[in-house]
Amino acid sequence: MSKLCTMSEAVSRIPDGAVVGLGGNTLNRAPMAAVFEIIRQGKKNLHLVKTAGAMDIDALCLAGCVSSVDAGFISYETEFGLAQRYRRSVQQGLVRANEHACYTVISALRAASYGIPFMPVRGLKTSDLRAVNDYFADVTDPFTGEKLAAVRAIRPDVSVVHAQAADARGNARFEGPKFEDALLARAAKTVIVTAERIVGDSFFAAEREKADVPHFLVSAVVHAPHGASPGACPGCYEPDGDAIRAFLNLADGDALLSWLEGRRTTW
Amino acid sequence: MVRTCDIMTVALSRLIHDGDTVFHGVSSHMPMVAVMLAKATHAPNAAYVNIPGGVDPERPVLQRFTSAGTGLWDSACAAFPLMDVFDLSMRGGLDVAFLSGVQFDNRGNVNASVIGDYRKPKVRLPGGAGSAVLIPTAKRAIIWRTKHDRRTFTDKVDFVTAKGNVSDIVTPLCCFTMYEGELILKSVHPGVSIDRVAENTAFPLRYFEITETPPPTAEEEAALRRIDPLDLRNLEFL
């Protein structure tokens, strides 16, 4: 069964208020085309989940789509500086920053993926993050009595991942660094895959390296060449520095919408 | 005149022992170059792990926009992605984690989260990334910070993102090391006086013996030119 659809159709299935897991890491293979479509459709009150985010989180904050961000790190790394829109939104009280260690995002997703309500985590108990956040708690090992920190499961309503290759049924392969995308797909209720190229239905059957996400987890597949741009997509393209700088100079959400008009493609 | 970024990079590199398992994360160009320098000089058997998951990349391609990109993956010998690196640290198998932050005090507390109140912050910082679990579980957490002033090296951090096994802190002025739970001055960089470090540090400086941080050797200089021709170790000073 083909799940191929337009970006607009795929994104229209994300309801306001949804918990949305985003694939990739900082400017590496983030699902930017899907993020931009979320902004065009004016989604509200999204709860974003990512280990380390950059322009994806920053753009959604600038557009006013975001209620909370669960992440370990939000910044463009060194070359393009801090995520100022995210930062300002949090400082103005518009967005709730739920700071994790990157590992506690992974642990929360693992818990959801394993079908259990929480995951014990080492180390965290010495951090102030343990005390100030209600998604962390203490837990006692029932076998030894050892006290550990625990993180509550995070089950995204939808995870959005960008792959180099996918077939129409939803089998998707991340070529190069895989980051946490396969886990995001397993933890979520459903998955939207955007892909640089759509391969034939028998493609992965003939490959030694199989898909990382199997079709039955996926509800929509979008052919989105340059779907991680202006970020990088390994094996396909480097980041578009001019576009990133242009974005960083946008004054507000309206300027972002007009800038996106100029980037509109035929997905 | 030795450049600050070169002094810092070699200081970080020399903290890596041969055979260590070593990790750095995002926004970490200087430690990235330091790990490669260590492997090219005194620590060829260090095992290098990173966010994209490429173990010991043989011909790493250093990328300006990221220290977590495919340049660390393409020539790697094994796949060991971030979640595996964290798991390794949790079970006691990670020797060195390079991390940073915005405020540090002399007990080794690290703040990378907020200035002001956590829920109503004056400044929302990027966040500690892996710090809250890595600093307590890695055998040695090595901190680098390219700014050294009284707001950075403070009496009391606004928020404890992480504490635990901080072993060393390398700054543009000096190297600190932890001794019995207290940060003490270990060495000052060439041309830096102890007074200048004291003026720029809010907590009282304590030390037994202070040396001058040794400048790069000819071998290290040559290796740096080969490993990092784009000078990405200097990125944070631009």
Which blocks of ≥5 consecutive residues of chain A have pLDDT under 50?
none
Q: Give the class of chain B from helix and strand content and strand pairing.
A: alpha/beta
Structural domain tally of chain A: 2
CATH class of the largest domain in chain A: Alpha Beta
Largest sheet of chain A: 8 strands, mixed
CATH topology of the largest domain in chain A: Glutaconate Coenzyme A-transferase
- Give Rg of chain B in angstroms: 17 Å
General description of the model:
The complex is a heterodimer of chains A (267) and B (238). Chain A is built from 9 helices and 13 strands. With 267 residues, chain A is of the alpha/beta class. Chain A has 2 domains: 202 residues, 3-Layer(aba) Sandwich (Glutaconate Coenzyme A-transferase), CATH 3.40.1080.10; 35 residues, no CATH class. In chain A, β8 and β9 form a beta hairpin. In chain A, α2 runs parallel beside α3 and α5 packs across α7. The mean pLDDT of chain A is 97. Chain B is α/β, with parallel strands linked by helices and 238 residues long. Chain B has one domain: Glutaconate Coenzyme A-transferase, CATH 3.40.1080.10. In chain B, the strands form 4 sheets. An 8-stranded mixed β-sheet of chain B has the order 2-1-5-10-11-12-13-14, with helices on both faces. A two-stranded antiparallel sheet of chain B has the order 3-4. In chain B, strands 6-7 form a two-stranded antiparallel ribbon. Chains A and B meet through β5, α4, α5 and α6 of A and α3, β9 and α4 of B.
